[in-house]
Each structure stands twice: as C-alpha cells, then as structure tokens.
Specification:
The radius of gyration is 28 Å and the shape is globular. 51% of the residues are buried. It is built from 15 helices and 44 strands. The chain is of the alpha+beta class. Strands 21, 22, 26, 27, 28, 29, 34, 35, 36 and 37 form a ten-stranded mixed beta sheet that branches. Strands 2, 4, 5, 6, 8, 9 and 10 form a seven-stranded mixed beta sheet that branches. A hairpin with a 2-residue loop joins strand 32 (361-363) and strand 33 (366-368).
Length: 861
C-alpha cells in the first residue's frame, strides 16, 4: 500500500512558501486500509529534520509538521511509510517543498524604478533593467534561487532564458497591504563566468487599467522592482546579487506600451537596446514586506492551434479558435521592417462581423478594454508572444499587409495552475458540453483571482466566488486559490467588520461603494472559509479566519432593526417585529433574473431588500453557530443563535405581508426560503406547490438569478426528482442547456448570451462568466451522488432520473478518487457502479435499498 499524490499544503512540491508549520497529505491507488504512518523529512544535505516515528493512525490528510522550526530557504525532502491492515510497510517516492524568505531582514536588495519623472496622465514604455555578474571560478555552484516581486508585473531572464514559467507576476493583491513574491530554482540557468540578469517591468494591475472603466494609477503611479539572486557554493559560502542602483535601466526596449486590459504595442526593431540608451536605475521604496502567495502560479496552459480563417461580409480577416479562452497570442511570420500587424481580440461575431461591443464600456472618448496588439515588424522572421496583457477571446481580427497563414497563430490559455479533479459523462451530450463549458469558464476567470469575466471588469466579485465555490472544489484542487482570495477579502475588511463586494478593490467605481455589505456578496468572507472547511476537512481554515468572520457577523447584527433610514424599505412590520429584520444598506438581491421575470433598473441598486437580506442574516448566523460550536467558542454561540432564530421568525412574518407574499411567480422568492429552511411547516408545503406552479407558468424554464440558481435543483429534487430533471433538461431560453445548444463554449453572464440587449454596449453581456455553472454542484452531488462526509469518508447517494440513460462522476478528493455511475436497464431499473478509494469508507444510499457502509473497493449494485 504505497502513498501517492504527496502534497504540502495542497500543492505538489511547492517552492517558496512561508507556512512555517506546513501540513502533509497523500492518497492511494491500491490497498484497503492504512493503520499507521511514518514521515521522514531531511534537508537538501541529508540532515534529518523530522522523524514522526510510527504513528498508529489512518490519517492521510493535513498532518502537521512536527520537526524543528523551519527557516528561510530551507529545502525539505520527505517521504511517508505506510503500514496496511496486515501491518506490511511500503515507502513512498520523495516529495519536496522549500521555504521562501520569511523576514524583512532576508531581503537584501532595494526597490528600484525607472529613471524618469512620472506624470499620472501619461503612459510609459515597459522598463528594462539589467546587471552582469561573475560566478566564482574556484567553487562549484550547489544551488541558486531567484526571489522576485514588483509593484506592477515583471518578467525576469537569466542569460536570455526566462526565469520561471509564470506570467503576470507577482499577481494581483492590494499592493498597499500585501505584495506577493515568486521563488525560482535557477541553478541550471547559471553559466561559468559572466552571467546576464535582466528584467522587464510593466504597469499591470498596479498602475494600469483596472475595473470596468479602466481606472489608472489605482495603487500607485511609480512601478518598482525588488529581486535578489542567492547563490550557494559547494564549499558552504554564498553570495547575493540584489536590486540596487548598480542596475542599469532603459525605456528603449521593444514593448512601447503594455496594459493588462488594453494590450501591447511591440516594435521588433527595438529588440537590441543601444548602449547609450542605458542609465542607472533609481532607488525607491515600498513599505510592504513581500510575502509568499502559497498559491498556484499563473501560467500558460492549453495551446489552440490551426484556427479557421473567416472573411467577414465587409472583407475583414478573423481567426476563429473555436474555444472562448482567457489568454494570449503567439505568432511567427516573415515580414519587412516597418510592416505592421494589428490584432483585436473578442468573443463575439454579430451579423457576420467581429465586434467588441459586448465587452466594452464606452463613455465619450473613453473605450475600455481595447484588447489589442499593435506589432511593428523587423526585417526577416518575426516571433511574438504577449507578455504583459491577457485577453478574453475566441476570435482575433487581423489587419496587416504581411502575408500570413492561420496556422502561424496560436492562442494560449492562461490561468492559475490548479489541477482538474473531476470527470463527468452522461447520455445527454448538451449536459456534457455544459459541464465542460463550466470548467472552461472557471479556468478563464482564474488569473490569480476569481473574476466575473476575463474581458470587461475582471473584478474579484465576492458573490460569484462564494456561490460557485462548491462547484469549483469538485472541479479543481481549489483550496490554495480560494484561500488567497480570502486573504484579499480580509485585506479590505473594515473596522466595522464589513467585507467588500469586490476584492481587491482596484477599479471599483466610487458610486458602487455603497454596495459593500450586500448580502450574498460580502457574506463570502464567511461562506468561503466555511465551505472549504466542510469540503476539505480543514479546521485550521475556520480557526485562522474566525475573528474576521466574527467581525462580519457583528456587522450584520448591528444593521438589524433599523427602520427609519431613507434607504430602508417600508415593510409594514411593527418596530417590535422588525428587531431581527435586516433592512439597512443597499443590496444587489437576486441579481440578473431573466428580463421577463424581473427587469433590472437603477432602482435595484437603491433598496435595502429586507427579504433577501434577512434570509442571508439567518443563513450566516446558522453557519456561525456551527463554526463556533466546532471551535468551542461557547461565549459567542448564544448571540448567533438569537439572531439565527430571530431572523427566521421575522422572515416568516415578513412573508405573510402582501408585498412579500409567497404567492409569486418569481422562482427565487420561493427557492430561497425553501433552501434556507425559513418557513413554517404549513408555508413550506405551500411554497413547494407554488414553486411548481411558477415553473409551469414559465414553461419549465429557469427564472432565478445569481443567488438562487445554485439552489433550485436541490429544492426541486427534495420535492420530487422528476421536477429537478425536467428543469435541468430544458433546452429553451432561459436554461442551462440552451447555451451549449447555441454553440457556446463557455458560460454566459446573461441568459440571452450573444443575443442579450446588454451586449449592445456594456451591461451584463459577458460570454465567459461561470456563475450559472454553479448548478454543477448538484450534478456531482445529487445526480451522481458523491459527497465528502468527513475525514476518510463519503456519502454515495445518486438520484437517477429524467430521460438520462446513464451518468458518471469521478472525483479526485483529498482522500482519493471516488466515483459513482448509474445506468438505466431495459426493464426500467438502474444498475450502479461505485468506487470507494483506499483507506476510506462510504455510506451508500441507493433508491429503494437500505443504506449500507462499505470499505474501500469497487462495487456493483
């Protein structure tokens, strides 16, 4: 029984982490039960750092470091020996992790910047920095590391070879509070004698366009770089080459303009910078000590080749890559010096023509984002790849007099390097495509941050992130990525405990700040740690963020019972009955219901929405009770219970009023209280019947918006699975399957997708927006029946139905690969196949059968 998939803090062989007591996990691909384990950890010189000795335990997830205190730069190699139920041991292959720089004093260099005067309204070429250094010729290099960060985005090269495989480093944070750094093993890139170290530094999120309207200079107007090379020789000596004013600087490199959203201007004739164009770099400062991201790097992923060339009715040339992605482009062509290639990136062809209108905001002379590349050729072979921008696109419009072939161009997806952890298949090809499209939209909105779309806003919208999180944790090993986002939320959190609607806040329009605190959005600060704990069994997550969650709970409580504010709706409830009503502030509410269900207007931003707000007050307090009980925070529990129960009772009174009546065709107004269990027994029965009537009145199409779409199939399958399947299999607009039926390769923001009226300019018109894909959680958990029940345990409870003849999900959980499939037989009965991974158990609940608990193995029923 050999341990595989060895991970440190959810990652495979991470380098440059700053978690001083990391935790280890593994799984198995054979065997039955682990009865004991022993972890052996050594440094890179073979010195023993920790021997856990033989521990009698079946634990294989999140075993905490028990060795000596880890210091900056420590390289650790570890193995785990496992004993099975026969007491036979087997040792794993080696795994590794490496500490980064843990303290301010570890940083020996200085921040440097370009040697020019900055004018905020101007845009500047990409800064170039360089320094040469000599290796000692009397000692062998044992190891070398590069530690690098920036306010802006950077790319480093050593002897002409890129340092690391990441892009747009150091990623996005609120740079005023937290700056991430990267660590790279560069031992193999050093050469004897003279070495040339170079960096390019662009605006990135720090100084470049952010938010829907492309605000500039949001975090600062002076980009800056901090880096150091640490070289360790075999004789035990070491040396450091760090950024300082001995670095040379030039702004005469080939990238004349770079902006994350707007694109690049690249002049290939300027690739060799003349010596007279180099000056000294300028010293500067930044008060924030860089920290490790403890997250997956943002890297190049799938490469899409051989696009189709489309000639539009107007004669334009457009490349169709057949898949909507977030990424970059590369090309290689022969040209004459001075010839130009102009590229525009978009996700929509309308009336036969390429358009960017659905992704752009327009105001007077401002159009954003531009999503374009202007390339000026040199003589001969020209090879280009975007460095400091990222685009959402399926199509590239090309204007050039350079001869090219479609195959000269490659589209490259770019997203954070998490692993895909699921497989799904069913008898419905549209559902299969919908699930695949959801994964693509997840990837496309994961550029170091869970964004709403990779085109227009590119914001870390909290509502989208929290409602999609359970789906994301099925699809990928999401924990490090989600925890990085929780840190972004906590960086913003106010003294009053409020969490934001967007994090980091860069580019958030001033008029929108009143929406911070909106339920369903700001609740993400509580719901993300809670759901990660439930999925991964990681108690440390709720321990780490408990005070942040407690502060937000207090913020919600402080806003209840307020009835005399202009923004508060007049509910008709008495002051006494309003004590536990959340009726203050501005809330998005359900958001983006179909237009013929609830047409949005500016008034939607100007209401306190007591129905939605009170429902989420109850839900958050319910979650806080569970968290506080788990952590033993007994002093906090009575208050959470009071507001949990008080909000439920107040909600029931609210829904008895005509204005908030359950007698409604708005599906969300019925789904929400049913999912949150907010109603009396009598009204629960009524609401279920009224929901079915509402669905019939809407021709069994989806009528919910952002918040309730992930819940509706859960509610329907609780009433009767036939209703859930009827809604799921609907192919009409609005509905999940109408997207793949229309040829979509990603998930749409608006149910109408490319035909949305919002797509005529701004609005909710992205074609790459994962939120509606949150229904995949139900597909994996209910349709295919896979749920993590606790440590080393699962619940397998599939619900077959509809017109499906088969369905299957496999999930690479933190406890191993679990799978469940079902198939409809000729006689109308169902057969089931279940795989329970080694060292786990599962409770299997099949329709019409008694529940049974099984150990690891493959089972047929």
């Amino acid at each position: 029984m050999k341990a595989i998939n060895l991970k440190t803090e959810y990652m495979t062989d991470p380098i440059g982490i700053d978690i001083t007591c990391p935790r280890f996990s593994w799984t198995f691909n054979n065997g039955t039960k682990q009865t004991a384990y022993q972890i052996i950890a050594k440094d890179d010189k073979g010195k023993l750092l920790w021997d856990s000795e033989k521990v009698i335990s079946s634990q294989m997830h999140l075993i905490k470091w028990g060795g000596c205190e880890l210091t900056s730069g420590t390289c650790v190699e570890w193995t785990v020996t496992v004993w099975d139920e026969k007491n036979e041991p087997e040792t794993s292959e080696h795994a590794h992790f490496e500490m980064g720089l843990l303290y301010r004093s570890d940083w020996k260099g200085s921040w440097i910047t370009g040697n020019y005067d900055i004018k905020k309204k101007e845009r500047y070429p990409v800064d170039c920095f360089r320094k040469s250094f000599e290796l000692r010729d009397d000692a062998e290099v044992l190891k070398a590391r590069a530690y690098m960060t920036a306010c802006g985005v950077y790319e480093g090269q050593l002897n002409g070879e890129k340092i690391g495989d990441f892009v747009l480093a150091p990623g996005i944070t609120d740079y005023r509070k937290r700056v991430q750094y990267q660590t790279v093993d560069i031992t193999g890139q050093l050469v004897p004698g003279r070495n040339e170290l170079t960096f390019m530094l662009a605006d990135g999120w720090y100084r470049g366009s952010v938010g829907a309207w492309g605000m500039k200079n949001y975090y600062g107007s002076e980009t800056k770089l901090l880096a150091q090379i640490e070289i360790t020789y075999a004789d035990g000596t070491s040396e450091i080459i760090a950024t300082d004013d001995s670095f040379a600087w030039s702004d005469q490199g080939p990238i004349r303009f770079a902006d994350n959203k707007d694109g690049e201007i690249y002049d290939a004739r300027m690739e060799e910078i003349p010596e007279e164009c180099w000056k000294r770099a300028k010293l500067t400062s930044h008060d924030v000590v860089p920290t490790a991201s403890n997250n997956f790097p943002l890297i190049e992923q799938e490469k899409l080749t051989d696009p189709e060339l489309i000639i539009t009715p107007s004669g334009k040339k457009v490349l169709d890559f057949k898949q909507n992605i977030a990424g970059i482009v590369s090309f290689k062509v022969e040209a004459k010096a001075g010839q130009k290639i102009f590229l525009r990136f978009g996700e929509l062809i309308r009336d036969g023509e390429f358009t960017q209108k659905n992704i752009q905001c327009v105001k007077k002379e401002l159009i954003t984002p531009l999503q374009q590349v202007e390339y000026i050729c040199k003589e001969g072979v020209n090879a280009y790849k975007t460095r400091f921008a990222i685009f959402g696109f399926q199509y590239i419009e090309i204007e050039t007099d350079v001869e090219f072939r479609p195959e000269d161009f490659t589209a490259i997806a770019v997203y954070s390097d998490f692993e895909t952890t699921f497989r799904f298949d069913s008898s419905n090809v549209l559902l299969n495509k919908f699930v695949a499209n959801t994964l693509w939209s997840l990837k496309n909105n994961s550029a170091d941050l869970p964004t709403d779309c990779p085109t227009r806003e590119r914001h870390g919208w909290t509502g989208d992130a929290q409602l999609f999180l359970n789906t994301a944790t099925y699809m990928t090993n999401y924990a490090p990525f989600a925890l990085k986002f929780e840190n972004d939320l906590c960086d913003w959190q106010g003294e009053d405990g409020n969490f934001p609607q967007i994090a980091p806040e860069g580019g958030t329009d001033t008029y929108m700040r009143v929406m911070n605190g909106s339920v369903g959005w700001s609740d993400a600060g509580v719901l993300i740690p809670y759901r990660l704990w439930k999925k991964y069994g990681d108690r440390e997550i709720i321990e780490k963020y408990y005070e942040n969650m407690k502060s937000y709970a207090g913020y919600m409580i402080s806003r209840t019972g307020k009835t005399k504010f202009i923004i508060s709706e007049k509910t008709g409830l008495s002051r006494k009955d309003s004590k536990y009503i959340y009726n203050l502030g501005q809330h998005y509410g359900e958001w983006a219901e179909p237009e013929d269900v609830h047409a949005m207007s500016y008034k939607d931003f100007m209401t306190s929405r007591p129905e939605e707000a009170t429902a989420y007050l109850h839900y958050v307090m319910k979650v806080m009770v569970e968290i506080a009980e788990e952590l033993g925070k007994n002093e906090d529990i009575p208050l959470y219970r009071e507001y949990r129960d008080g909000a439920k009772e107040a909600y029931q009174k609210l829904r008895r009023l005509p204005k908030y009546s359950l007698n409604t065709d708005r599906q969300a107004r019925l789904v929400r209280p049913l999912y949150f269990d907010l109603l009396t027994e009598k009204n629960t029965g009524y609401a279920k019947k009224r929901l079915i009537k509402a669905l019939k009145n809407y021709d069994w199409r989806v009528g919910t918006g952002f918040l309730s779409t992930p819940f509706i199939l859960y509610v329907l399958s609780d009433i009767d699975p036939k209703y859930a399947y009827r809604l799921l299999e609907n192919e009409k607009l609005p509905g999940w399957l109408c997207m793949p039926k229309a040829g979509a390769t990603t998930i749409w923001e608006d149910w109408a997708g490319p035909n949305s009226d919002n797509g005529k300019g701004g609005g909710i018109a992205s074609l790459n927006h994962y939120s509606k894909g949150a229904v995949c959680e139900w597909i994996f958990e209910k349709m295919c029946g896979i749920k993590v029940a606790g440590e080393n345990s699962f619940e397998i409870a599939p619900i077959p139905g509809g017109s499906f003849t088969h369905a299957m999900t496999g999930y690479d959980s933190v406890y191993g690969t679990v799978a469940c499939s079902w198939k409809k037989q000729v006689d109308g009965n169902y057969s089931y196949e279940v795989i329970v991974p080694p060292n786990t158990t599962a409770v299997i609940r099949l329709p019409g059968r008694e529940a049974q608990t099984v150990e690891a193995g493959c089972y047929s029923f």
